[in-house]
Amino acid sequence: MTELIELSALEQAKLIREKKISAVELLEATLKQVDAVDGRPGSLDTPVEEPEDLEKVHAFILLTKAHALEKAAEVDRKIAAGEALGVLAGVPYSAKDVYCTKGIQTTAASRILEGWKPPYDSTVIERMNQAGAVMFGKVNLDEFTFGGSNETTAFKPTVRNPWGLDRVPGGSSGGSAAAVSANEGAISLGTDTGGSIREPAAFTGIVGVKPTYGRVSRYGVIPFASSMDTMGPLTRTVSDAAVVLREIAGFDPRDNVTGRVPVEDYLAELEEGIRGLRIGISPDYLKITYLDDDGNYSSAAIDPEIEKSVWRAAEIFRSLGAEIIEDVPMANTKYSVPAYFVITRIEAYSNLQRFDGLKYGHTTKEPVRDMYELYYKSRGEGFGYQAKLRLLTGMFASQEKFYEKYYRRAQRARALIRRDFDDAFDPAGKYRLDAILTPSTPSPAFKFGGATASDSLLMQFADQFTSPMNFAGTPGVSFPCGLSSEGLPIGLQATGYDYCESKILRIAYAFEQATSEEDWRKVKPAALR
Amino acid sequence: MEDETITIEMFNEFVQVAEVELTPEEAVSIRAKMNEQLKVIHELEAIPLEADLPPVIHGNPYPREIQAPLREDIWTPFENPQSIISQAPRSQDGYIVSPDVPHQRLG
Q1: Of residues A62, A67, A60, A270, the one with CA closest to residue A177
Q2: Percentage of chain A surpassing pLDDT 70?
Q3: Which domain holds residue A72?
Q4: How many domains does chain A have?
């Protein structure tokens, strides 16, 4: 029998609305699951991971049990009184700890924000409240979202992948992905600046949506690189992702890059199917391209099991009436790594300057001569290694004398990368695509320490298939498509044009429906067996 | 490819301007890592860019018809300023308390 915690958010909401279960009952079942699989929460006071920590998921930094019980009880009261309910009324969810939550600790997984309780909610949290969802915890991430494995968090133990506890969950929304994968809530909110929703979703066998830049408000979310930051859901089903996106998307006067573009009913439109959609496959997304030591572009093959998954999915889509267009050139993809590197470091440097040890968060306990020494020591104590590295690299690259050579050139490269997408999706062009199908990652989840291993290109370039969409501003959804021979999840990505989330969700949903009875879908993550 | 090694002197200046204290071990490691990463930054030079290709500040266009209208310049007080002040490590009488701010000669 399927347990409550295994149900989708929409199924959970339906049971609550029909009074078959209470919101408090569902919340308690969810908290019980956290208690069973998660182990001790991430903490600044845990310098050493104990052997027992290696057997747990550790998705959470903070559980907000009292706050959540109050919210769930309010949902139950409204149901009893026959009052109007939001579509996600009573559904427990978690949020990556970069979403500001009024009166609730928000850390960005960094010591520099130790103890900070924001005086306001982010817009996305407000909209989840309006939908009636119940936030029950804040989940771990790479410090300030700087990473793709969760290893840079200051809050230990590090999040572990429920499918293989010796594997990373991906990042930076690794806590979100691990929590949803381990049935610790059906929904988690993540952020994606270069693949930080899609990569962990792929590594943990769930669905993750990076919306169009400007589709979801950034207000109240601690920034990484403001010209590419996007917010979106991680869920176990495409329908859940569609409904959450519908609830959180839309214009926000407090974030002036949100567009005044109507929000489609992504959930209802899932049923429209994919007949007639033109889905492209690009050879540039079936290999890793990099500059070798001689300064020449070289290529490395992606994991063959992953490439096979792309072609299998293409056959399924063809059988459902979609048209598969092969050999779509996306030749500028290979330039995304250096351009991404420069722009994100410079923007991160700018964004990190607000943390000073004076206004909020960590401050040094050491005696200081003046305010500058307070900054110097507080930031030295508060920032982790990766934050310091990115801060200093960003500072180096943003020097006025390098403006033309680095930042401006990277912004011009961004225009070049965008051109690939404009050409592929141009309705009057040669390809006239509705979506492009790519692997989400070049390999399944790697072992801890793998991303820094110098001989592992696939791990170093784990975001080569996701960061171009952050450059282009276009949406992408990662959806699970099977398991590797090692039993690790594989994710595929459908990416579309600006504000075309509905089409890519339809594609992911079509795949989900067509493969719903396949054996791999019955396999549970190792942490749940 | 231009050689632009970050020297110890340059690095120490960055650290001062960035106002972030490093341990001796961090300083050695981060400077080495930055010099390694220069290779990635220099990959920008290998990108063939047409002379008239303009820079973009974000990827997708943001035409006027979807932009937010300019808001009126009206001051709106925050509902609870004390909730902001109370987050400061040191505050007094509704003000954030800072150590002395030394005068610096600009130039």
Answers
A1: A60
A2: 98
A3: 12-269+522-528
A4: 2
